[in-house]
Amino acid sequence: MVEKIRLKEASEKEKTLYCCLGESLCVVQILEDALSHAIVLKKTEPDQKEEAGALLKEQRSYTLGKAINIAKKESLLPKPLEIELSEFLKERNWLIHKSITENKKEYRTESFYNNLFEQTKAITSKANELRISIELDLIAYCEKKGIDMTNVKNDMNKHYGI
Predict the structure, then answer these.
(1) Cβ contact 129:123 at 8 Å
(2) Whether this model's pTM surpasses 0.70
(3) Residue 93, in any domain of the structure
(4) Which of 23, 47, 59, 118 has the greatest number of CB atoms lying within 10 Å of its CB?
(5) Residue 130 pLDDT more than 90?
């Protein structure tokens, strides 16, 4: 029976939406990874490479919410960044768990697509901003520890076109 079922090919609008959703999911995962790295870098010392590697492996298995809670509990990030990450968590959870299924009755309507495009693009933008904030915080942290971050800053400037 299943072999006889032919699924309809996605429309151009659906393909665009799927690309937008995919981009957002990727950017959120990159943010989660940046947070994992920040936690590990602030909890270990440069000579603790094995410990840091093991901690990073463990940290990467955590959800964004759990990682944020660790960062908060151990005061690993500036308070404003903690707050922004906590607020962003609601948007991330909506994206992952409800973005498509929340308004199933509206699916395929123009307003559904428009709203989902807007919300997804906003999440992508916010995730990128938060990741950059984490990167800048890590640079400041490393500089306080006496590490020259000139090359990292130059690479960031090239990458972001500053």
Answers:
(1) no
(2) yes
(3) yes
(4) 59
(5) yes
Total domain count for the chain? Answer: 1
Neighbours of 44 (CB within 10 A): 17
Could you give the CA distance from residue 112 to residue 117 in angstroms, rounded to a whole number? 8
**Residue 1 maps to a domain:** no
Q: Which residue has the higher pLDDT, 102 or 15?
A: 15
From CA 51, how far away is CA 49, in angstroms rounded? 5
Q: How high is the pLDDT of residue 107?
A: 72
The rounded distance, in Å, linking the Cα atoms of 124 and 5 is 35
Asked if residue 133 is part of any domain, the answer here is yes
Angle at 87 between CA 116 and CA 110, to 5 degrees: 10
Token digits for 25? 């999911």
6 in a domain, yes or no?
Answer: no
DSSP helix/strand/coil, 107: coil
| pLDDT at res. 1 | 72
